[in-house]
Amino acid sequence: MPDEAELQKQMAAADDDQELRLRDKKILVVDDDPEIRAAVDHALQAEGALTQACGDGNSAVRIVEGDPPDLVVLDMMLPKRSGFLVLEKIKKLENAPRVVMVTANEGKRHQQYAEDLGVDGYVLKPVRLERLIMMAVDLLDD
């Protein structure tokens, strides 16, 4: 039989599990900046997400086609295939994932184009990680 300290430890672990807002959600993080990619990836994992990450548009499309995530966090400016082309390609797939586009470009024309292609969320860099997490939670709770 577990002692009092072990029971408290198990209860604390159970409480921690209940607070994971993205538990078992599959999320792909696509950004060519390794520091941003790592920070977003780490923040999502801390909320229980099962993440994959890549740094270019072609890899993103390949991952989504082979192992579709629930959500893609997608940078607009990417090597090999732009975020717009990635968005266009993956939104045509059956059971397309939700997509949050992250960009430093403040132009309304770009946002409108992303919305026309089916983006589910659009945020400007620098983005607070908590805001990105809340957006992911809201999109995946639908």
Topology readout:
Layout: H1 4-18, E1 26-30, H2 34-46, E2 50-54, H3 57-66, E3 71-75, H4 83-91, E4 98-103, H5 108-116, E5 121-124, H6 129-140
Parallel strand pairs: 1-2, 1-3, 3-4, 4-5
Helix pairs in contact: 3-4
Counting structural domains, the number is: 1
For the sheet with most strands, the description reads: 5 strands, parallel
Radius of gyration: 17 Å
CATH superfamily caption: Response regulator
CATH topology: Rossmann fold
Main β-sheet, spatial strand arrangement: 2-1-3-4-5
Fraction of residues in H or I helices = 40-55%
Contiguous runs where pLDDT drops below 50 for at least 5 residues? none
What is the annotated CATH architecture? 3-Layer(aba) Sandwich
Arithmetic mean of pLDDT: 89
Elements, N to C (H/E): HEHEHEHEHEH
Strand content: 15-25%
Shape: globular
Please give the alpha-carbon distance between the first and last residues: 42 Å
Q: Which structural category fits the helices and strands?
A: alpha/beta
Q: How many β-strands, per DSSP?
A: 5
Number of helices: 6
CATH class: Alpha Beta
Quaternary structure of the protein: single chain
